[in-house]
Amino acid sequence: MNTASNVATARTAAATNNTWLGKLRALALHALNLHLQNCAVIAEAHRRPQ
């Protein structure tokens, strides 16, 4: 799932990745992206009829 917002986030994170705060921000955004992908998978599994 490579959306325009993810690309913009990656560019922003790359620009601020030289400080510890920038690295922490990039890590938090990556964790959020993984979490949202996981939620999408779970939602899709629940949406399908059994």
Topology diagram in text:
Layout: H1 4-15, H2 20-47
Q: Could you explain how this protein is built, in words?
A:
- This protein is mostly helical and 50 residues long.
- It has one domain (4-47).
- 80% of the residues lie in helices and 0% in strands.
- The chain has helices at 4-15, 20-47.
- The longest helix has 28 residues, at 20-47.
- The two termini are 26 Å apart.
- The mean pLDDT is 81.
Labels describing this entry:
mainly alpha; 0% strand; 50 residues; single chain
Question: How would you concisely characterize the structure shown here?
Answer:
With 50 residues, the protein is mainly alpha-helical. Helices cover 80% and strands 0% of the residues. It has helices at residues 4-15, 20-47.
Q: What's the end-to-end separation, in Å? A: 26 Å
Number of domains: 1
- From the alpha carbons, calculate the radius of gyration and give it in angstroms: 14 Å
* Average pLDDT: 81
- The protein's oligomeric status is single chain
Approximate strand percentage = under 5%
Low-confidence stretches: none
Secondary-structure content class: mainly alpha
Q: Could you estimate the helical fraction of the residues in percent?
A: over 70%
Q: What is the molecular shape?
A: rod-shaped
How are helices and strands ordered from N to C? HH
**Biggest β-sheet description:** none
